[in-house]
Amino acid sequence: MSISFTVNGAERTTDADPAKPLLWVIRDELRLTGTKYGCGVAQCGSCTVMIDGVAQRACVTPIDAVAGADITTIEGIEGPEAEAVKAAWTELEVAQCGYCQSGQIMTATAFLQETPNPTDEDITFAMDNNLCRCATYARIREAVRRAADTLEA
Questions:
Q1: Which of the listed residues 14, 35, 103, 118 has the most CB atoms within 10 Å of its CB?
Q2: Domain check: are 56 and 89 in the same one?
């Protein structure tokens, strides 16, 4: 059974097992390797993508659940929130090893799209479910704050 969906603006079709996680279709079939495998149980956030504009974990999303959906990966994220987040990440040198950063950026972008004027508590709560092996949490929160402030200006 073929399953069709859009990834980063391009129509895609796969004949993968309907239960196969979206993460593996993105990485193995589409060769978009920015979305990372972290835990496989939706606890770390490394595999976060946008599905129809909502940040979701690709490691536990079966490919048949995204039939007809619009998927955005780190390679295709754009817009004012994404640009502000990426600029803040670079300016504040957030990444250390970098492994979790695509998921962090996807989550931060989705958060700022939904909450354009967040409090510091909002930021902490929104980013709390994304793990960072290097513990750059203070820089991550600072970058989200900087991106939000940039968008307000």
A1: 103
A2: no
What CATH number does the domain containing 42 carry? 3.10.20.30
What tokens appear for 85 in the block? 């987040």
Kindly tell me if the per-residue pLDDT of 43 is higher than 80: yes
Is residue 84 within 8 Å of 44, Cβ to Cβ?
A: no
Q: What is the pTM of this model?
A: 0.93
Distance CA 153, CA 128 (A): 26
Range(s) of the domain holding residue 62: 3-72
Residue 146, CA distances (Å) to 6, 84, 128, 149 in order: 31, 8, 17, 5
